[in-house]
Write a structure and sequence with these properties.
The chain is α/β, with parallel strands linked by helices. The chain is built from 8 helices and 29 strands. A hairpin with a 4-residue loop joins strand 21 and strand 22.
């Protein structure tokens, strides 16, 4: 992260969504590259082009179980007049010492085995009697079950063209080709390719370590009994899961009570394993909004350049927000509101792009599209606020789910999109085309 402190303005300044996000992305910097083992690099972004050191496949090999033969020896073969060839042995995958196939000869060959010298093509075993002398067979029998099949003679009932059923050396990628470009996100297929060309490690930007903590003395862990005035802590679970979904390694910290000193101690303890910290709750104007109390003057005690700026955004839900850095390494911290929907929407708009930026991705945003609003009545929105309503999207249409309340967790669970109502729009009629953020 940059050492520059976040931009500050007067307490009455109402930030736009775009201004707040711009400030975050201007401050967060991609993590430094490291060398990782292949499986540890899953989900990470490649920082350098990978060149193929050896062709894939590295040798001509058979794509079928069958017989390696010369083309001329099976020309004109038919069930009535089969070609009869002497079997000189087996060629198995991984075999180093290869047989030589001469005129009138055949070698039993297994899928993936190298084409032996002298052979020009492969005849599938189904086109032969398998060396058993009993007509066409359905498949290759194991040598242990039919040792006579690896020697003696084989009857071939169909001709084969040159290099039929042969995978050519370099037919996948050739030595010197570029296998993967810098900026590629390494998923299972990319890791498979790296392994196939012999790369055991790769240079990537690591997945960011994100620490998530919720605040509030009223919060109780799931599976525990609720007391009077208590609720279950859902935010830390939702945001930890969302951080992992975004590509991070996320750590959930149990809910912290409404005590500023306890919160600051907890944050300091967690800094050692954080590339990004996310808090939820305690950023509004209440008497017990401890995140604001604990971190508003953190820059006075930390190194120069650190500090958390608490802001009001022209959005609904999620008006109160905090952003800045903390600790000797200037670890970025995003303080989100405590209402569940406000918290999740804020994550999608601000934290997810920050995580993707730390990963070094060029496109850090959720995909957006235009959709026709399907609703029983017009949607209303407060003037001067950009509203994000939960919805379900399908076939170019979006339908609102639940109301505008920032506490409606059940509606959020059924949503796969956010309906965006601009700041200058107070009512949206059914059938109107609206902007939609796709969450799925």
């Amino acid at each position: 992260m940059s050492n520059a402190a976040p931009r500050t303005t007067g307490q009455d300044h109402l930030w736009s969504v775009d201004e707040h996000l711009e400030d975050i992305l201007a401050t967060v910097r991609p993590l430094e590259p490291i060398e990782l083992q292949l499986l540890d690099a899953q989900g990470c972004v490649l920082v350098e082009d990978v060149t193929v050191p050896v062709s894939l496949p590295p040798f001509d090999n058979s794509s079928m179980d069958g017989y390696a033969v010369r083309v001329a020896d099976v020309a004109g073969a038919s069930e009535e007049f089969p070609a009869v060839l002497d079997v000189v042995g087996d060629v198995a995958a991984g075999q180093a010492d290869l047989l030589h196939v001469g005129p009138g000869q055949a070698a039993r060959i297994m899928t993936g085995a190298p084409l032996p010298p002298g052979a020009e093509t492969v005849v599938p075993v189904e086109w032969t009697d398998g060396g058993l002398g009993e007509g066409p067979v359905a498949g290759m029998r194991a040598r242990a079950l039919a040792p006579e099949g690896a020697e003696g003679q084989v009857h071939v009932y169909r001709p084969a063209e040159a290099r039929a059923h042969v995978r050519a050396k370099g037919s996948d990628v050739k030595a010197g080709d570029r296998a993967l470009e810098a900026g590629t996100v390494l998923g299972p297929p990319q890791i498979a390719l790296l392994a196939a060309i012999g790369r055991g490690t790769v240079r990537v930007r690591p997945r960011p370590r994100v620490v998530v903590m919720s605040t509030g003395s009223e919060l109780v862990q799931p599976d525990e009994s609720l007391g009077s005035g208590q609720i279950y802590d859902s935010n830390s679970f939702a945001l930890t899961a969302a951080a992992r979904d975004a590509g991070a390694i996320a750590y959930r910290v149990g809910a912290v009570a409404d005590d500023a000193e306890t919160l600051r101690d907890t944050i300091e303890d967690q800094l050692v394993r954080a590339d990004l910290m996310v808090t939820t709750g305690g950023v509004s104007v209440g008497a017990y909004d401890v995140v604001k109390e604990a971190l508003s003057h953190v820059g006075d005690e930390d190194e120069a350049g650190s500090g958390i700026d608490f802001r009001k955004l022209a959005m609904q839900p999620g008006k109160p927000q905090g952003f800045g850095s903390i600790g000797p390494d200037h670890t970025p911290l995003l303080a989100l509101p405590g209402n569940p929907v406000s918290s999740y929407v804020s994550f999608e708009l601000f934290v997810r792009p920050a995580i993707r930026a730390l990963m070094g991705l060029e496109d850090v945003h959720r995909p957006r599209t235009r959709a026709k609003l399907t609703a029983g009545k017009a949607l209303t929105s407060p003037k001067g606020r950009r509203q994000f309503l939960r919805g379900t999207y399908a076939d170019g249409a979006v339908t609102p789910v639940g109301g505008a309340g920032s506490h409606l967790v059940a509606a959020l669970a059924h949503a796969d999109a956010l309906i965006v109502v601009p700041e200058d729009v107070e009512s949206v009629e059914p059938g109107t085309e609206v902007e939609v953020v796709l969450l799925g």
